[in-house]
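Data availability (excerpt). All sequences and predicted token strings are deposited with the supplementary files. A representative entry, ethanolamine kinase, is shown inline so that the format can be inspected without opening the archive.
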Amino acid sequence: MTSSMYCFISGGRVRFEPVDSFNSPSRSDDNHLKLPVNRQKRIRTPYGNIKATNLVYELNNPSLSDLESDAHASNGNESEEEQGEETGSEKPPTATVDAAGNERVRSILQEYSTHALYLPEYFVDLESNLSDDYAQIRELLIRVFKEWTDMGSIEVKPLTGGITNMLLSCTNRTNGDQVLMRVYGNGTNLIIDRHREFISHLVLHSLNLAPPIFARFKNGLVYGFLPGRSLAPAELRHEKVYPLIAQQLGNWHSHVDHSMIQDGVEKIRKFTSSLKKKNRASSEARAPQSATSPKNPHKHDIVDIWDLIEDWIKIVPFTKELMESFQENLDFHIDESNLRKSVLDEFRWLKTATSSSKSPVVISHCDLLSGNIIIGDDFDFTEGSKDQHNLESNPVRFIDYEYMLPAPRAFDIANHLAEWQGFDCDRSAIPDPSPANETMFNWVKAYLNNVNATEDEIINTISEISFYYGMPGFYWGIWAMIQSRISNIDFNYSEYGKSRLQEYWDWKKKFIK
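Structure token line:
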């Protein structure tokens, strides 16, 4: 097995093929991937322009030789069938692939437009790139895209962040193609499952619900540019916009397959785990005299939103604001000896209280704030969508899939509606989850996107959502306390976390009554 893989969607499953299948000694056209002639044209999609013939995935440059290996050593515990399943191949892949193997993988990448390159050992050092005019980043882009041949014609611009958290715009000035590169923030792997984010993006693109994703490296992603702009917080409740958001969220909840994502996540975890074992064995062989470093305990695999929050509780720091929040809202003394247990007990009560709603578990965005909702620049806020009941003409798209997980649909909805309060935390802007609230009634009607939906169905869905109105405050309150210790952004996360937790406490009082 190689240390780099192609990931693609086939037959309703996420599959993998070794990059070795396309290694070649030169960069001649004969050694590059090309899509069929009838697809070698500029394709316009809701996610912008990119040439279908642009993508090429060959890593034959010496500067990237550290990504390749002659073969992936088995740890001795996996059957031949398991190793083959890990890469989506019938047999374990090797460094040498015959002509038939080359043709098979070439055919796969021609047939399936949703595919990306996974480089688990390639690390982008932002600090050195900032001082070296993004030389390493330009070099990587040349090896990902066939027509990006001249480093001097690649323009790299930072859009957000600093040396530990950055979004970059990368443009080929020769042909105008543009992609985005995100380099992961400091410490974010503690709270975000990067394997799941990558596979989720891949699956969403296969359903035309996300821009294309081209490559994932050790600490970031390369993906397609989505034209348009992010909504402002106040626009979330605009009468011409909120039905479109509701309809698109309902579309997500109805069509994204949880099992496909989970299958892909398990495969990529297995692949990465075996790669780490190989590297560890190689390191020990090079330095047999040194003591073996202690192994990290196996991290619990996150499978849904409840698992995620419970993991966050295990690492949440004992900030002054967290202590105050629980002390002010519980009728017993809180100190460091019982704080974590109190947070965990509160979480378990919340999980039990919401379960009676029987909200269906779906693939949820889990972070649908205004900045993650894109609308076309030409959208008319006076006229709205010409056919708001037609999903195909819906101009709203969602971006940033870091927190995507299976979750009760009512949580994803309540989590979005909580964002109506904006960054000023004006809770009066959050719609009351009552059938008597016309805005809430219309939002749910658009979410169901069913002209035959009965009034009872709408009312029951509103009731279901109301059970989860306290969970977003708890979710983001714990998240913010963790961010207060790991983020380099100049923001008072602890105070923000206390404010969000208070949403939960206020909801709980009403819920109990």
